[in-house]
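From the shared-data thread, chain only:
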Amino acid sequence: MALYFQSSCSSSSGNCLLLWTEHTRVLIDCGLGSMKRTRELLNKNLGSRLDVDGVVISHMHSDHIGYYPLRVFETYGIKLRVHENSLLQLKAKHFNGYGFSSLKIRPFTERPFRVGDLTFRPFELPHHPSYRTYGFVVKYKNKKVVIAADFSDWRDLLGYFIDSDFIFVESNHDLELLRRYYNPNSRFHMPNPETAKLLCSARKNSRKAPKAIMLGHLSLIRNEPAIALREIENRLEKEGIELDFRLSAAPGLMASEVVRISRAEHP
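Structure, as tokens:
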């Protein structure tokens, strides 16, 4: 069975990622600003019944989860996976006084958990100190996927990225554009040069090349896809590392290409 990935949107205006196999479909984050937009985006990717096995939330910032997606999840009986230490913050920040008595919430811890035929291993990311944030190593058969958006320092995280088949990783801002359009919150996010260093270190220490790497959570004001991609390519060339994988950047407000991480198995 094949494994696929697509970013439906990826920026500070909203994030929603989709990972699926023949039998399982999982959303990672869903931070959209209205019930209408949530339904439209999910209908486009999941069909009118919103056939999804679960939504795994990385942290409680509003561009990753919010009141309106929660209303949609409750209506369709979609199960929400949230870290146990973020449950009170979810209710305080996003319930808006609404009871959500029928919302299906299943907390996770740092231990691996399953959604359908996908196994998630959470790992904590250094991000905003008020928001506990997680990346995920996702295993499917012999394939390894790493999802890591919204973090500021990779130095203790390298091991999670080594020998991955697919990586979705934040490359938030260009340093020159940040100087031009300063935002103090950018210190909680990965600049292009640091993402380049992380990916070069991961490739050097891996026995095989990933199938693909997609850069995500690019600032709409302080970054551009061409700038972020060039930063990675230049760093690879500087360190003498072959670009032997598909490298792309997720659009901020639109769906990305579909990445096929593994082929379907045939008897």
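The longest helix spans residues 192-205.
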